Amino acid sequence: MPKETIVVVDDEPAARAAVTRLLQERGYTVHALNGGQEAIDFANTNPFDVLLTDFRMPGGLDGLTTVRAIRRINPQVVAIIMTGHSSVDLAIESLKLGVHGFVVKPFTAFELIRNIEQTIAQQTLARENIRMRALVDVFSTTQQLLSANTEAAQLPHLTLELAMNRVSARQAALLLLSAEQDSLLELAVVAERANPEDDGSGEGSLPVFHPVDSYSHSNLSQVEQMRLLGQRALNTNATILMVDGQEVEPGSARMSSTQNRVSQAVVPLMAQGRQVGALVMEKNGAEPNFTEADLQIAAILASQGAIAIDNSRLVHRLAQVEALHQADRLRSEFVAMVSHELRTPLTSIKGYATTLLRPDVQWNNQTGTEYLSIISEECDKLMQLIDNILEVSRIEAGALRIYPEPVQIYEVLDRAAMETRRRSPEVNLEVRYPPIDEIPYVMGDSQRIIQVLRNLIQNAIKYTPSDPHIVLELKALPYDEDYPHGMVEISVRDNGIGLTQENKDRIFERFYRVDTGSARRTEGTGLGLAICRGIVEAHGGRIWVESEGRNKGSIFFFTLPVADISNQFNLD
Ligand code: ADP
User: Domain spans of the chain?
Assistant: First the structure.
C-alpha cells in the first residue's frame, strides 16, 4: 500500500524544508505550503491524507483555523499541529476542536515520524470502529430485505430506502433489468429527500418516492445516463464513482471535495453471478462525499437487495412454470375424458344404426321403432353431455356468467320441490324453512340456484335405491365476519347409498364417479356436482357433503350470501 500524502504548512522556509525532506526520506508524498490560505486552496483541488501545520503563523491563518477549514472540505484528513512549548496548552485544547495530534518543537526526526504514524494509526482505528458499528447495524437492517414477509413488489423500494438512509444520500434510484434476459436497465424506483438541506440524519428525513413514469419523462437525459453507468457497473461488477460528472477512483480517504459538489455512486446489483440491476445514489451540499464506509454499506445493501429481488423473481417464475404445467396436464386429461365419455353413447348409436342398416335382415316395425328410440335417447344423452362439458369448461375458464339479484330464496326451494313432485310423484319430498318473514333475501341468480337444486335432488333420487325420503332445508347462518350481511345454508338430505370419506373428498371433481356397488350401475357423467360447485362458488358460497358412510344416506350443503338490501326499496 502506498504511503500517505502529507501537506506540510509552515511559514518558516527552513523548518518547512527540513520537515519536508525528512518525510520524503521516509517515503511519504509531501506538498510543502507557505500558509493556511494556500493549504485551503490546495485542498479544494487536490486529495491528500494528512495535514501537518504549524500552530502559530503570524500574518496569516493560524493552524487551528486552517485545520477546521480543511476538514470541512475533506473530513477524512488527519490533522497534526506543530507547536512550541509556549502554546502546548492551546494545542491540547485544539484536540477538542478537530485536531488529531500535536508535536512539540523542537522535535527529533524520530519524534516527528513516531507522532505522525501513531496519529494516523489511531485515526484509522477510530474510523474502522465507526465503520464496523455501522456495518453491524446495516446487516441487521438488511434482515428485513430477506425476511419472508416482505412483499416482492416492495423489495426495490425497501432497498432504496435503506440505502438512502444509511448512506445519507440526497437522491437515489434503483434500476432493474426486467426478468427477461438481455433486456435494458429500466428505472424501477426513484426517491429524493423532501428537504434539500436534509442529509438524512435527522428527524423527518424520509425520502419521497417519485412516480417513475413522470420522472423518466421529465428527466430523460439523467435516466439515460444512469442506465449507461448502471450497465457499465454491472459489466465490470464494480462501483463507479462520479464527482461533478467526472469519474474518480473510488474507495479512499484521498478523495478531495469542495462544497457545492455533486457526487454519484453507481453500485451494481448482482446475485449469484446474475445481473439484477444498479443502485444510483447522489450526494451534494454540505457532505458531498461518499466515504469508504458509505460505499461498503451501499455494496452490502445492494447485494442483499439483489439476492432478495432475484429470489422473489425465481419464485415467481417457478410458480408460472408450475401453473403452465398444471394447465397443460388438466387440458390433456380433460380431452382424454371427454373423448371417452362421448365414445360410449356414440358406440351405442353406431351399433343400433349399423344393425338397422344391415341389408340381409328385414326388421319388423316394432323392432325398428325400438332401436330408433334407443338411438334418439342416446342422442339426447349426448346432447346433455355436450351441454355439461361446455358448462364445465366455462367454469374452468372462469367464464361462467351469473346475474345475481336479491332473491326470495324460499320461493326457489318451493319451485324445485314442485318440479320434483311433478316428475317423480313416488318420492317422499319434504321442504323445511323458517317463518317467511325471518328468511333474508339472497344475492343470487335464481336460474342458476335452481339448476344446483335440481342436480342435487336428482342425485338424491338416483342414489337412493328404495323408498327415497328427501328433505330440502333452508337455514339462515349466524353472523360471520367474512360475510357482514350473513349467509343462508341450503341442504338436500337423502336416505340412499351414502359416501365413504375418500369419495366425499372427490365427488366434486369433474368426471369423478364412485365406481363401486349400486353407484356403478347408475347412469351419469360425473359432471353434475362439478357444475354445482362452479355455480355456488361463483356466488361466493361453498358446497360440501356429509355422510356417515355406505348406505347411511348423504346430506349435500351449500351456502349463498345474503343480499345487502339496506339501500333498496320495493323489492316485492
Ligand atoms: P353423476 O351423478 O352424473 O355421476 P355427479 O357429479 O352428479 O355425477 O356425481 C358424482 C358422483 O357422486 C356420482 O357418480 C356418485 O357416485 C356420487 N353422488 C352424487 N350424489 C350422491 C348421493 N346423493 N348419494 C351418494 N352418492 C352420490
Answer: 5-137, 143-313, 319-385, 405-561
